[in-house]
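Re-running the complex after MR caught last week's input typo. The corrected sequence lines follow. Everything else is unchanged.
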Amino acid sequence: MNQRIITDLSRLPLHGSGTASLTWWGTLAFMLIEGMGFALAIGSYLYLVSVAAEWPPGGVPPDPLWGTAVTAVFVISIVPNLLLSRWAGEEDLRKVRIGIVLMSVLGLVPLALRVFEFSALNMSWDSNAYGSITWLLLGLHTTHLVTDVADTFVLAAVMFTRHGDNKRRYGDVQDNALYWNFVTLTWLPVYACLYGIPRL
Amino acid sequence: MTAALKDRDLRDTALEEKLLHARLAHTWRTPPGLIGFFTTVDHKRIAVRYIITAFAFLFLGGILAMLMRWQLSRPEAGLIGPDLYNQIFTIHGSTMMFLFAVPVMEAVGVLLVPLMLGTRNIAFPRLNAFSYWIYLAGGLVLWVAFVLDMGPDVGWFAYVPLSGPQYSPGKRVDIWAQMITFTEIAALAISVEIVVTVLKQRAPGMRLDRIPLFVWASFVTSLVVILAMPAIVLASTMLILDRLVGTHFYNPSEGGDALLWQHLFWFFGHPEVYIIFLPATGMISSMLPTFVRRPVFGYLALVLAMVSIGLLSFGLWVHHMFTTGLPRVGESFFTASSMAIAVPAGVQIFCWLATIWLGRPVWRVPFLFILAFFFTFVLGGLTGVMVASVPLDTQVHDTYFVVAHFHYVLVGGAVFPLLAAITYWFPKMTGRMMSERLGRWSVALLFLGFNFTFFPMHILGLQGMPRRIYTYQMDLPWGGMNLFVSLCSIALALGFALFAFNAIRSTRSGEAAGDNPWGAATLEWATSSPPPPYNFARIPVVSSANPIWDQGQSLPVASGLSVNRRELLVTTTADAEPEVRETSPGNSIWPFLSAIATTIMLVGSIFTPWAVVWGSIPVAIGLIGWFWPRGTPEDDS
Amino acid sequence: MRRLLPLLSAGLLAGCTGWQSALAPRGPVADDLHGLFWLFTITCALVWLAVMLVLLAALLRRPPDGKARQERAMQHSARAIGGAVAATVVIVAGLTVASFLATRSISAHAEDALVIRLRGYQWWWEATYADPRPDQNFITANEIHVPTGRLVRIELAAADVIHSFWVPNLSGKQDMIPGRANSLAFTARKPGTYRAQCAEFCGLQHAHMALHVVAEPPEAFERWRTAQVAEAARPHGPEEDEGRRILESKACGACHTVRGTQAAGNLGPDLTHVGSRQFIAAGMLPTTRGSLAAWVADPQSIKPGSNMPMVPLTADELQAVSAYLTRLR
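Corrected-run output:
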């Protein structure tokens, strides 16, 4: 087909952040998928509660100490995480490097606490359906945590190479920070389920 | 080479036509040979590959269907024993749903959405390549297992406890459950790509009310996939855990519940039907105008109908569970919601009828398929109203009536439009036209063969024939009609075979098509057949829903994109105003390697849970290799 | 209309014997479902016909010439679509209400219902007639008798996987789900034998899991019931004696019960009155001495995958067992 040029795009920026970035939307879509996964897993938890005569069977709820510690770390981590996201927006390489190392370390802390949290559940996954769904919820969240921490580590490594000082990398750091917020936000209802409902 | 060509930021603005094409072809090329085969990220190549693979699975599934018809053609036939028969119907259903219908609809989306939107590649093209390999691996796992007599044998919805550790020992069900994981990963990946492509990569000026209806359909479908598929991933993970590590999600004696599986499965399983059907309606809405020579009537109504079908599809899952003894009040609600979906479905039918009413029909093969769709799908939709009624469903549920119903909906409602679409968009895949004469014969065989095969099944169901029986006794009055059905299914199979023959022959020797052989209105016809690797030499600018019809002789375009790196245009979500010149990732072997690593992990996890632990290391390496910046022009800003 | 419907069924679906058919209702619940079926079918057929006629007209008509006429045609179309949508809403609402009313009428209850507990096994049915008087209880398998004209409530359970109980001539189906209790009620209007078949895929022999519902007048039902409550018939003559001895001493008694003998297993069907049933092996073979012998001799080739193992017996032993089983009327 014949063409006639009616507009010129030369002056457009070469990279957009936030809603102008494809990866931002992609991250959002993946968060929607995983959020749906969490919602359905919590739905299954509540469903099993509704068919059970006693919850938890045997009456020993999980020990809340470690889970609460994890929650505290998550809540605290939001502050450096938001700062990191802002520094990435300002494309300040030095601060971003500091921030991402800090977030890598902060990611390891709940992961270490998780080990204790699993052992404080007072129930094995193969004892009964309560044990199964409890382990599933905690395992599902831990998988997300591991993924995000691994991602943060790789990104931290990239930021210390020559590829670091690049709009695209700053965008990646922002998306990673967004994902950390998601991991934090999904934890709160899971926490409420695991430690609240058995005590009702 | 002139100095201008070495310039890293060379733009298309001042380049003369021939040089522009040469530069773009170089930048967007796929290397020839095997390297190109494994590294390409061109959405068209991947889509065509996807479509061919899906049709291969259709034919494999079809062979299984013919085997079943052979066995059922007379009572107490001993051709196929129960063990093999149960594998056959399970793999027939699983193949048709997970390896044919959903992938093929998504693949057509991968092919057409970027072309219809006037962009150069799909968003996240490497994810797209990854998706294909994962899908292929999932299909191979299922079929290799079947050949090794390890095929799943518990039906495509694998109800627990039958599929649980106690009543299905061995690896058959685990293979089914992991095949689900493969195909869901593949489908979710494509859905993310399509959603982002539709939101951010539309041609300048393509406001929401100018988006082609097939693109709308793909967009709504992708959102349905994103919201529905996590349910089956969760359900099948819980099933594998029950089988592999001794959890009790579905075990009633340890506090689990058999119906939890059904709720989760159908929360996905019902939307699944619309994941297949919505793209088909989009295809019809996009093809019909070409064959009645006028724009579709009721664009807004059609969009709203698709959106409301997408929403309503989440409120219907319980109508697959009307005989499980749920509270009556709840069931009545689901009767109402199931019937309510007849309203948006009706709106679509009425708009298409009005479009034909106001237009001048062109009797070509795709249009004939659309007419076959009307005849068949309306009937299947109406039997859908019947199974939506709780009391009626107690008689027809799990009988051949339901078998007839869903084949009317899926074959009539989705496969006929799909075959129309393959015929119609064949030039965009191959540059050639399919034979009109063979096409007419295949429409006739498929239409008659289908209706004579499946209509009698309604009556068989009412006469008491349950589904999934490998044989029936002499004293039951089903023999004559089953024989009739089996004979007619031969005509149906011949119709598919003829269609395949036509497609294969036309790929080599079909008439050359030219850019716009049907005289259609949307952007995919504004570029050559098949389109070049970069789709459009310059990005089209759109000011109506039917750009080619409304723009007169020449296509308005935008200039200013780089020709030395893969660059495409990102526009705003609502109004499609140009926003950013974004780069698009280049060819890479890493999606293929990551897919292999993922396959090893998933197949390993059938045998030991530890595979998830050690298998995740190569997956992580694959993903790091995939995303690690390489200093190519595409990495720069 | 009511009288026309059976005629329609017969005319449209000639050849249907009604042995296991939703189109040949033999009780009030099935009647209601049958009426509802034809209401839906006729409505849907009319809608389908209307759509096809409009499509045909649209294909055959000449499209309007000139801008003004086209404009007018478009306005008419928009109005027609509006009307069609409204009609869809009305039809769908009407059918929903009809279906709701039918649900209400078929879930009727009665105080004096006969209660039968039915339990699904891979691939047979165990029926327990629970009477308030404990000595009137009995267990049987694969064939239930019901008195005509009296409401029967079937309480459904499953021993292993999900099954579904369905006697289309008398009522719709209801699933039998491990860990859940379901029930279903129907009344048989006329004496007769109605075939039921498992409707939920339950494994290898899902195809051969039938049950027969024998409806008989109340007096005949009471006679049957009294006979079922009794212990097993005594063997007549040396061959039947030998048969009973084999049944007690070989593996048979480990799975089957014959009340009044040492056979007291509970994994397979109760055989106390197996000879009185019309069929053996969940509807597979008519009960004759020959088929009993064939079944005992080689259950796996008759019903592959069935949980009944082949117990090695000599030809004489097989003769004796089949003679004794035939006696158990």
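None of the earlier attempt is carried over here. DSSP finds nine helices and twelve strands in chain C. Residues 33 and 176 of chain C are 21 Å apart (CA to CA).
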